[in-house]
Automatic annotation (TrEMBL):
<dbReference type="GO" id="GO:0070004">
    <property type="term" value="F:cysteine-type exopeptidase activity"/>
</dbReference>
<dbReference type="GO" id="GO:0016805">
    <property type="term" value="F:dipeptidase activity"/>
</dbReference>
<dbReference type="GO" id="GO:0006508">
    <property type="term" value="P:proteolysis"/>
</dbReference>
<comment type="similarity">
    <text>Belongs to the peptidase C69 family. Secernin subfamily.</text>
</comment>
<protein>
    <submittedName>
        <fullName>Secernin-2</fullName>
    </submittedName>
</protein>
<dbReference type="Pfam" id="PF03577">
    <property type="entry name" value="Peptidase_C69"/>
</dbReference>
<dbReference type="InterPro" id="IPR005322">
    <property type="entry name" value="Peptidase_C69"/>
</dbReference>
Length: 399
């Protein structure tokens, strides 16, 4: 398999967070000029069969969740997203040594991004989303080109799945997998396997298959990473862990702290538009067990020069037509085009400063709203167009 490049996903849990929220964040680093759209999907059309990016699978017999997705516009699946049950998921490409037969990622199966979306559509908690993903992985496998124009870009996947109570790290090699439960502190994943001897769930027949294929001798303590890893970006993994360690020192880690992690250029976590593999989209989610969860998306490349815009699931919430890609070859949605045009101008730094001020003001207003939120008496109607209004303001600024 070709070496996967970039992407980082993070989660911070109580007692290290502000207001006992679970804070999730992800940068999606993808091929240059690949547009990432942000869309909300409710009550999509359902048939007996479901066409994913490459293969067709059985549709769920159960109701499916409403989801907001940040996704490469050409594929069915998503790099990251959230559902209306307070579940968030992000995935990473990983190096693996298990590349034959069921582990051959060149074969068109389910993409890791398909599994992200399926987990969100069908999972009502982090653990149930984990079960959805692993059941589908064991049944259908994973694989297929992960780029629209580069058939050599394929890989296995790791996932970070969280809800308002806990998080799970799921790491895979072909149809084999191990998962670790996280209930406090922080965790991050980049592009390498990290689960070693401590895991809470694993695939059926994992030890037998690992021994039969020669990845494990059957005698030493079983180490998932040692068995299946064939490399990874240790520098970014370590830098991400350092940023979380430093950011949680005061035990009040919040949404803005995650913004700052995703904007960190020196670590390589944030990649500019000029990079061959830039950060094409970013997400931060603040998950509340007994209040409202808020999901922030850029819908534009490079979070250091982008505006994180909030979204809350309400009965009538909307995203924006400006972040939905048209069905044309370049798939550039209006916000993407305006953002790119602005960055090419001499005054782009001035615009970026205004965007950051808008973001700070929006964050303050959201926190004020949440501090006064009463589930029994507070109307959510004013949040219906929250993200749409923010996008409209950004578009006007660019124009």
């Amino acid at each position: 398999m070709s070496s996967p490049r970039s992407c980082d996903t993070f989660v911070v849990l109580p007692p290290l967070t502000k207001d006992n929220l679970v804070i999730f964040g992800k940068n999606s680093d993808r091929p240059q000029n690949e547009v990432q759209e942000v869309i909300c999907i409710r009550d999509r059309a359902r048939n007996i069969k479901l066409k994913c990016t490459y293969i067709t699978i059985d549709e769920s017999s159960e109701p499916i969740n409403s989801v907001i997705l940040s996704k490469p516009a050409w594929m069915w699946g998503a790099e990251m997203g959230a559902n209306d049950k307070n579940v968030v998921i992000g995935n990473e490409a990983v190096w693996t040594s298990n590349n034959e037969g069921e582990g051959d990622a060149r074969q068109k199966r389910l993409l890791g991004m398909d599994l992200v979306r399926l987990g969100l559509e069908r999972g009502n908690s982090a653990e149930s989303a984990l079960n959805v993903i692993t059941n589908l992985l064991e049944k259908h496998g994973q694989g297929g080109p992960c780029s629209e124009f580069d058939d050599s870009h394929f890989y296995h996947n790791s996932f970070l799945i969280a809800d308002a109570k806990e998080a799970w790290v799921l790491e895979t090699s072909g149809k084999l997998w191990a998962a670790e439960k996280i209930t406090s502190g922080y965790r991050n994943i980049s592009n390498g396997l990290t689960i070693m001897t401590k895991f809470d769930k694993y695939s059926r027949g994992l030890f037998v298959k690992a021994e039969a294929t020669g990845f494990w001798n059957g005698q030493d303590e079983f180490d998932f990473m040692k068995c299946f890893s064939s490399g990874g970006d240790e520098k970014r993994q370590q830098e991400g862990e350092r940023l979380l360690r430093e950011g949680t020192a005061l035990r009040s880690f919040g949404v803005k702290d995650m913004f700052n992690v995703l904007r960190h250029k020196e670590s390589g976590i944030c990649r500019g538009c000029e990079d061959t593999f830039p950060t094409q989209g970013s997400q931060v989610s603040a998950l509340s067990f007994d209040g409202l969860s808020v999901h922030w998306f850029t819908a534009t490349p490079d979070p250091s020069i982008s505006y994180f815009k909030p979204f809350v699931f309400t009965p009538n919430s909307h995203v924006s037509p400006y972040t939905e890609s048209p069905n044309e070859p370049k798939r550039e949605h209006d916000l993407y085009k305006l953002h790119a045009k602005c960055q090419a101008k001499e005054n782009s730094e001035v615009v970026s400063k205004i965007l950051r001020e808008m973001e700070d003001s929006c964050l303050f207003e959201i926190e004020e709203f949440l501090s006064n939120y009463d589930p029994d008496n507070t109307s959510l109607e004013e949040l219906d167009n929250l993200m749409k209004d923010c996008v409209d303001t950004e578009v006007k600024l660019y124009e």
